[in-house]
Amino acid sequence: MPLPIGELTLGDYLGPLGIRTAVVGKTHMVPDREGMARLGLNDSTEIGIRVGQAGFDAYERDDGLHPNGLLVKKGGKLAYNDWLRSKGYDGDNPWNDWANAAEGPDGELLSGWHLKNSNLPARVREEHSETAYMTKRAQEFIEEMGDVPWLCHLSYIKPHWPYMAPAPYHDMYGPETFTPIVRSDEERQDPNPVFKAFMGMEVSETFSRQGVRETVLPAYMGLIKQIDDHLGHLFAWLEETGRDRETMIVFTSDHGDYMGDHWMGEKELFHEVSVRVPLIIYDPRGEADTTRGSSCDALVEAIDLVPTFLDATGAPSAGHRLEGRSLQPILFGETPENWRDAVFSEIDYAFYAARATLDVGVSDARGYMLRTERWKYVHFKGFPPQLFDLENDPDEFEDLGRHADYKEIRQEMHTKLLERLTDRKNRVTMTDEGVHALRRDEDETGILIGKWES
């Protein structure tokens, strides 16, 4: 979806401080071309380029998916493909034919888009794979910055479909290393209608078949191991150059992957395997020494990262616009006041086959989740809710969304969800200080409202 032209990103917040911000790797930030045209902006102007890059400095953005048809639609240009060709990989689309394809016994191409090929090695050499390339490009960006302060969003494309890893990562892991699948026949007995529709999508039915998860997992786990190794090389380089002493490192993810858990195949709904993600922060500042090496079980959301970076760089807080909260107090060993007691997630499933199955309009395909320490409540527009007792049912097998005994819990969680939704920031173009100043200005300019006499 295009990012509305008025929305601010990290580049917009940090740019005024002289901080260079770049995305290296995957991003789905699409320019708001309609908004740009309305304001007379295009890619030939400096501001047009910046808005088209979603506020970031242009460097190595790559949305990660380049099958032949989509690559042609996007104009056929891909920096990674150019680099692969310079390394001797031929063809119009080496991403598709080398990095995400294997080779059959007779030399035929076996596409990574077909899950049955996932446990085969990609044709590309490991040092020329997407993970290796993006790590190299991140290091080059950091080197080019010199003494200029910077923020690099190194966004690895893998692990992601097409699930295909280069040797030796394609077969490092076997069945003895797999965690047990998280699903129960109980989930398929009178399921929530939305959950049922998602379980009925092709990707879910495929991953529910015997043997599919077992074929894909070696590649999936190998791709994670490959990221671990390349991050290790990058961190070692930061240490060798002394940059580790002045670089905050945040490792996280956008979502989990069902891989057959809960009879699902991808990422769409709100089970823990999908919405719960890793978050590891290395803060080199001395104030963080008290928490170094420790873990924290506070309820944290991805939107907390932007205010954390603003705190770390000394940028204005933008509290009138940002709904997340800075994690800096937690990093410094402090106890933040009034920390949230629930985390929020949402989905617009208008683009999925499940919407057609449910026969709902594109504006009605909405779902919202609120999760406390014990309860997880999911509200689907036009359908019954879901409710899970995470204390007694940590695997989320028993949906209490229609159980008569839990009506009060559902109402309590629904009220909390409504509060969260109504707490969203709407007055985003004026700070709280600006509101106070405007009220004072009215008094000073002689505006009189409701006065009867002097």
Architecture blueprint of SSEs:
Blueprint (H helix, E strand, L loop, with lengths): L9 H5 L5 E6 L7 H6 L7 H7 L4 E5 L6 H6 L5 H8 L7 H6 L1 E3 L5 E3 L18 H16 L4 E6 L37 H7 L2 H6 L4 H29 L8 E4 L19 H4 L3 E4 L22 H9 L14 H4 L11 E6 L4 H6 L7 E6 L3 E6 L5 E4 L17 H16 L9 H14 L9
Parallel strand pairs: 1-2, 1-5
Antiparallel strand pairs: 3-4, 6-7, 8-9, 9-10, 10-11
Task: Summarize, please.
The chain is an alpha+beta fold and 454 residues long. 33% of the residues lie in helices and 12% in strands.
Task: List its traits.
four-stranded antiparallel sheet, globular, alpha+beta, Arylsulfatase, C-terminal domain
Strand content: 5-15%
Sequence of secondary-structure elements: HEHHEHHHEEHEHHHEHEHHEHEEEHH
Helix amount: 25-40%
Number of separate helices: 16
The assigned CATH architecture of the domain at 341-423 is 2-Layer Sandwich
Low-confidence stretches: none
Sheet with most strands: strand arrangement: 8-9-10-11
Overall spatial form: globular
Main structural class: alpha+beta
Intertermini distance: 56 Å
Assign the CATH topology of the domain at 341-423. Arylsulfatase, C-terminal domain
By CATH reckoning, the class of the domain at 341-423 would read Alpha Beta
